[in-house]
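Mods, move this if it's the wrong board.
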Amino acid sequence: MRIVVYGLGAVGGTVAAGLARAGVPVTGIARGAQLAALQSGPLLLESPAERIEARIPCVADPRELELGADDIILLAVKTQDSGAALERLALAGLGGQPVYCTQNSLANEPLAARYFPNIHGVNVMMPCAMVAPGHVRTFVEPRFGMFDIGCWPGGSDADDARLAEALEAGNVACSPSEDVMTWKRGKLLLNLSNVIDAAVGPDAQDGAIRKAAREEAETVYRALGLSWRTIDEDDPRREQIRRGTIAGAPRAGTSTTQSLARGAAQLETAFLNGEIAMLARQGGLEAPVNAALSRLGARLAGNKAAPGAMTVGELEDWIRS
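Not the wrong board. Structure tokens:
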């Protein structure tokens, strides 16, 4: 078995480093400066508990790989890049091998199912950051993160069991689930605040906006008969991903904030808040707060705004407009 990690950003890089350190066969697909860094040297992973360097074979395109029947694909690109990645996997001859969608949002699994038959969801709990080419950090311990995995749209199979075993060896807590999308719907509720953090900063007095976005999403879920799960405060699994600090490392912002800081041309907001807006419209409902936040993501990226450039008052005006 080989695990092919498509996208070696913060999440993909953390997973790949853990797997490589454990001796699990892993290959990465990357681009740009990250590709150059990993082809010339090791990937550095820092966590509150340790610092490791791992050599990861890395290519620019899946067509450079000879995909095998026992390969597992971890799709770890941003949701807005999934379509192009799936096209490249199809061109490379991927067939029935399992494809695991590690991204936030609910959009990746049905998109991947347009191309391939063996699709799985992954609920990712891994606060991490891309520091520089060849350097990633995860801010939890003693594990590097925690995944719930399962077949899409439901169930669990032998592929989940063998991936869970590999991830556990790589210091990522992993539990197969019979209904992984309930976990991903719960995670989406948390991610609705990503664009708010990006717009006004993580310490702004924006609690009312966050609450409105989440309550609106929960109303949509209930109206459509969609269940969700989140990790309870007393869930013992929380002990596997305790927040920690890394000397000299600032607190990592959300994935949306990190993308905005890098000057990304597109944010994932359309697949987070926009997912709720779409579900509402499909059900003949309205979700005005999340619809406005989805449009805000496009505005922030299009204007190359700096993280935290808006005031809470400006954000409130935007939502009302």
